[in-house]
């Protein structure tokens, strides 16, 4: 009998670019707070999922701080099993509707996708968003089966991405969890920092409700450090997790910084987002609305501020950044959207003073032009001021978005808690333990201003370590 040849495996047709996602037209969205991208339809999601090469050694999972089974959930989407896909994602990520929208996938999971070698990566973030939104559209979100209560109690301070992740994970271990939130709404940077047009508040609220549905108690308007100290919490709780973020803005310490109309990005975005100043006077939080708004910085917070200015009625919204566009640390998607909407990039400039009118309001921003020198510790080329290149930019509102560090209130009221040079709480990288027994920390309070997904990744490390500590009692 003649040898029969095995049938050749059919070569998968490669689609080079991502399935497009419909968006609001730039001219329309620059005047409203509605979300910019519309998301995938089921057919579009399945088409995008089928672009996955189903690699034998998927690198995408290595790029995910929370360890989502990316190839697994994408395969289920391709097959039309959306329920199975979202369940698989939520095994490691309790907040997929949030991370699918604001996670910098291009630097993480999508950045190491094998497709990137020649073509566009698979739209992992878009698919994650799709399955989360699909689940919400089906009705009440199912609660995972929980183990019997352990009797152990954990206090989570802060309801941002790190705190929510820790709370969700610990609840699924069977521990009793209480989240203490200083503000009147939960969500941390997700509600006070990221604008509605990037992350609708209803979606944040939905994800928080999901975490609370697992038995997590949420206490708002409770400032740890004044209403109760960490030491006092430890008298009632078996462990404490600090996820209080980085809410202390940095300033430039240049002349005129105290003029009216000069905002930190923290205040500007908190007023506009959490306190809904964009709906004044329906909401009673005022905000100064300028015709020419200058935002200083090149990160996502700067882009959020510049795009918010347009939606508050600015005729001109300018980004002043000391390096070139290639060195900007914000997501490429954010630059793209901002420029489409009319934000102007004024690059290679450093503000050195603000000048005001006779009534104490800012009117101009004085700058120096820069040239790029050798790379610094960040790997980006260092900006070098050009002597005598002074010029002025008219601006009646200025937003300073150059970074932030943790608020010192908790370290100042907690005994035995070590902090670093910039006020961050010092932790062990592999456990997120602090110098104080029973206290863990993660997210921006430990790293300084970073990303939502990195904060969540540290939350997952902390929750595992907290569980082990509660089980063994060993520190």
Give structural notes:
- With 475 residues, the protein is α/β, with parallel strands linked by helices.
- The chain folds into 3 domains: 26-137, Alpha-helical ferredoxin (Fumarate Reductase Iron-sulfur Protein, Chain B, domain 2, Orthogonal Bundle), CATH 1.10.1060; 153-247 and 405-472, FAD/NAD(P)-binding domain; 251-402, FAD/NAD(P)-binding domain.
- The chain is 31% helix and 16% strand.
- The chain contains 16 helices and 16 strands.
- The chain has helices spanning 26-29, 42-49, 70-78, 82-89, 96-102, 124-137, 161-173, 189-192, 201-212, 230-236, 265-272, 300-311, 332-341, 409-412, 444-447, 452-472; strands at 153-157, 176-180, 217-219, 239-242, 248-249, 262-264, 292-296, 316-321, 344-347, 349-356, 362-375, 381-385, 391-394, 397-400, 404-405, 439-441.
- The protein has a 5-stranded parallel sheet, with helices on both faces.
- α13 (332-341) links the parallel β8 (316-321) and β9 (344-347).
- The radius of gyration is 24 Å and the shape is globular.
- The relative contact order is 0.12.
């Amino acid at each position: 009998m003649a040898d029969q040849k095995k049938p050749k495996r059919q070569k998968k047709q490669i689609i080079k670019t991502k399935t497009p996602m419909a968006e609001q037209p730039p001219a329309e969205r620059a005047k409203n707070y509605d979300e910019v991208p519309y998301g995938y339809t089921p057919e579009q999601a399945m088409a995008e999922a089928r672009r996955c090469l189903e690699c034998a050694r998927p690198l995408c999972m290595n790029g995910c701080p929370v360890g989502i089974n990316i190839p697994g959930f994408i395969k289920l989407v391709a097959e039309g099993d959306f329920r199975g896909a979202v369940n698989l994602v939520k095994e490691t990520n309790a907040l997929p509707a949030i991370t699918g929208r604001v996670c910098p996938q291009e630097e993480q999971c999508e950045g190491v996708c094998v497709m990137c070698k020649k073509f566009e990566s698979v739209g992992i973030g878009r698919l994650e968003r799709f399955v989360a939104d699909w689940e919400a559209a089906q009705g009440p979100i199912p609660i995972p089966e929980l183990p019997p209560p352990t009797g152990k109690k954990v206090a989570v301070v802060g309801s941002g991405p790190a705190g929510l992740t820790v709370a969700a994970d610990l609840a699924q271990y069977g521990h009793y969890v209480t989240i203490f939130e200083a503000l009147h709404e939960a969500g941390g940077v997700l509600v006070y920092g990221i604008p509605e047009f990037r992350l609708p508040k209803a979606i944040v609220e939905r994800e928080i409700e999901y975490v609370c549905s697992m038995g997590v108690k949420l206490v708002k308007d409770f400032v740890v450090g004044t209403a109760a100290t960490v030491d006092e919490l430890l008298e009632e709780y078996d462990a404490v997790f600090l996820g209080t973020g980085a809410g202390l803005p940095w300033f430039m310490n240049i002349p005129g910084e105290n003029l009216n109309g000069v905002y930190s990005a923290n205040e500007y975005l908190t007023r506009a987002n959490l306190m809904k100043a964009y709906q004044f006077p329906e909401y009673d939080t005022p905000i100064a609305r300028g015709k020419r708004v200058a935002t200083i910085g090149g990160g996502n917070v700067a882009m959020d501020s510049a795009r918010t200015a347009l939606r508050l009625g600015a005729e001109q919204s300018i980004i002043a950044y000391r390096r070139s566009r290639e060195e900007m640390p914000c997501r490429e998607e954010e630059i793209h959207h901002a420029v489409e909407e009319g934000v102007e990039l004024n690059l290679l400039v450093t503000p050195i003073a603000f000048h005001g009118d006779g009534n104490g309001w800012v009117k101009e921003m004085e700058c120096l032009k820069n040239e790029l020198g050798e790379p610094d510790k960040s790997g980006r080329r260092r900006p070098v001021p050009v002597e005598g290149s002074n010029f002025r930019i008219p601006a009646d509102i200025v937003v300073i978005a150059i970074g932030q560090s943790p608020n010192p209130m908790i370290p100042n009221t907690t005994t035995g808690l070590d902090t670093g040079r910039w006020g961050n709480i010092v932790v062990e990288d592999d456990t997120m333990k602090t110098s104080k027994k029973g206290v863990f920390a993660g997210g921006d309070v430990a790293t300084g201003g970073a990303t939502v997904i990195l904060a969540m990744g540290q939350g997952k490390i902390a929750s595992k370590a907290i569980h082990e500590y509660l089980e063994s009692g060993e520190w």
